[in-house]
Design brief:
Keywords: Signal. The chain is α+β, with helices and mostly antiparallel strands. Strand 2 and strand 3 form a beta hairpin. It is globular. The two termini are 27 Å apart.
Length: 168
């Protein structure tokens, strides 16, 4: 029952994010933009050419409420599994996105990945992130404006604090 509820909640978040951000053309080309607030989420996005976009969905103040959506060449990953995020020359991070292209924060493991990605997006040292799906699709996104788009108010700090309380 809990797994089904998680799937329903993730589906609702997905619909809210996609409805709020509209088409890939609505995403800021090469610049993280604030797409506004809708369906309980503050959305920010960036695009890198036709059909390549990342959307950060932020449930303000919720410990487990943020979401990352990625699509390359107009589609999410073909299989659920690791997607590689390479920030400049730093060690790449393999992040498990679901078939819809989402990384949620419904579990401590998902939240941990989301925290790492958020910290790297806001870090300021990296200039770009290259995202690669297992089928070889790849795109390089600018991090210009990501430090402001992925704000502390997005629950990342609260998630980190919550994880610190429940994990050894």
């Amino acid at each position: 029952m809990q797994r089904r509820m998680t799937t329903v909640l993730r589906g609702a978040r997905a619909a809210a994010l996609l409805a709020a951000t509209g088409s890939a053309a609505a995403a800021g080309e090469g610049l993280w933009t604030d797409d506004g607030f809708g369906q309980g989420f503050l959305e920010s996005s960036v695009s890198a050419g036709e059909g390549n976009r990342m959307v950060w969905g932020c449930s303000l103040g919720a410990a487990f409420g943020s979401t990352l959506f990625v699509e390359l060449a107009g589609a999410p990953p073909n299989a659920a599994g690791p997607v590689i995020f390479a920030f400049n020359d730093a060690q790449p991070v393999a992040v498990p996105l679901d078939l819809g292209g989402f990384l949620g924060s419904d579990t401590a493991v998902e939240a941990g990945y989301l925290i790492e990605i958020a910290q790297r997006l806001r870090d300021g040292d990296a200039v770009t992130v290259t995202v690669t799906f297992d089928d070889g699709r790849t795109a390089t996104f600018s991090l210009d404006g990501a430090d402001e788009a992925v704000a502390d108010e997005c629950g990342v700090g609260a998630t980190q604090q919550t994880l610190g309380e429940i994990l050894p």
